[in-house]
Design goal:
seven-stranded mixed sheet, 11 strands
């Protein structure tokens, strides 16, 4: 089964920067992209950034111009580079990929365990 492991979270002051990493392991069949989500306490999980297999990216409006999603395919790693961080960015960040669960299976979502990002004022 596919496993996703996030890292890079931590405590940072406002206007600071962090780089999150998501490493995929296990057998991955036909992944069609990667995404980063976040969830703050008491709030719903929201999509932060996506990158398709073709390299197209999309971002949550509130992070545009500050966050960048990228992939290193040979390393099975997806990054979220976060600049100009704000306290409102505080959340648990999760990476996500959509892939087949087996060679001829259906596409399903795989989630990491999350990494905490805390931005102080």
């Amino acid at each position: 089964q596919v496993q996703l492991v996030e890292s890079g979270g931590g405590l940072v002051q406002a206007v600071g920067s962090l780089r999150l990493s998501c490493v995929a392991s296990g057998m991955v069949f036909s992944p069609n992209g990667m995404a980063w989500y976040r969830q703050a306490p008491g709030k719903q999980r929201e999509l932060v950034a996506v990158i398709t297999s073709s390299g197209t990216t999309n971002y949550l409006d509130s992070v545009k111009g500050r966050f960048t999603i990228s992939r290193d395919i040979p390393k099975n790693t997806t990054y979220l580079i976060m600049n100009s961080l704000k306290p409102e960015d505080t959340a648990v960040y999760y990476c996500n990929t959509r892939a087949r669960d087996r060679p001829r299976g259906s596409y399903v979502d795989f989630w990491g365990q999350g990494t905490q990002v805390t931005v102080s004022s």
